[in-house]
Amino acid sequence: MLARYERNIPALTEAECALLRNKRVLVVGCGGLGGHLIEFLARVGIGSVRVVDGDVFEPSNLNRQLLSEVPLLGVSKAKAAADRIARVNPDVRVEAHGVFLTEANAAGLLSGCDAVLDGLDNIASRRTLAREASRLRIPFIYGAVNGWVAQAAISMPGDHLVETLYPEGAVLRNKSVLSFTPALCASMQVALCVKLLTGRPVETGTLYYFDLLNQEFETIPMA
Amino acid sequence: MIEVRVFATLRQGREKITMLSPEGISCAGDILDRMRIPPAEVSILLVNGFHQKPEAPVKDGDIVALFPPVGGG
Predict the structure, then answer these.
(1) Domains parsed from chain B with CATH numbers
(2) Is the ipTM of this complex over 0.95?
(3) Which residue from B40, B46, B51 is facing A169, i.e. has the nearest CB?
(4) pTM for the structure as a whole
(5) What is the per-residue pLDDT across A159-188, written as a single tens digit (0 to 9) for each?
(6) Do A123 and B40 make contact, defined as CB atoms within 8 angstroms?
(7) Which residue ranges form the domains of chain A, and what is each CATH number?
């Protein structure tokens, strides 16, 4: 047991920590959600993390995106994610892809992964990623934020959770996100991911909804 | 009466809980019409705690909850 994982114990067993170090996960989007996802995955000790984002940092990212810093404006988000993982936990193998997810590249990006984490910021890309994860029989750990509100869920192959949440023509009323909202959402996503990858029981098809403005938290069965 | 609970941005200009007379309401979609909420602004529609489509029937005593799409990252 590496010293860096001592404080994982006994919340996780040594066997569970070893199991996590043999897993590979995909994070698509290295922005608000993605930055926190990557941080939590690296620190808990996932063995291999593949990060994907075709964007570069810009000033409007600074209010919430953990990986964004003034000296990194204009720098690739995927590269910043890989650099951060290397500084936080060199025990993690990291693959960075500075591309946007498309129908054409989705299967390759998902290949060989044990779970997919959603760090995306739009409905169309989420649909693409969820569909491909379902087709390849890979669990999809959904997360989305808006303003003060976060929601997360595990979507298993064939449950069509994302299609259910975003019916045709669904409208996002605004694009604001506060600094603390994606951190909460990513915490729930990574907790669900760790439970899933260690074989602990999880509720699938259940949406966890957090309204940080009104302190309202709901557990919603979607199946 | 039918109890309608709205969440997040759907609360702008509306009360958290609205009690509606069941008269003229046969399905969840009728509630959206009555409350002037465009269907595209609703992502999750619960009737008595379970996700349903707008065509789902509703009756006196039911509790309906409406959540807007959340899609940023």
Answers:
(1) 2-67 (3.10.20.30)
(2) no
(3) B40
(4) 0.95
(5) 999 999 998 888 787 789 999 999 999 999
(6) no
(7) 3-221 (3.40.50.720)
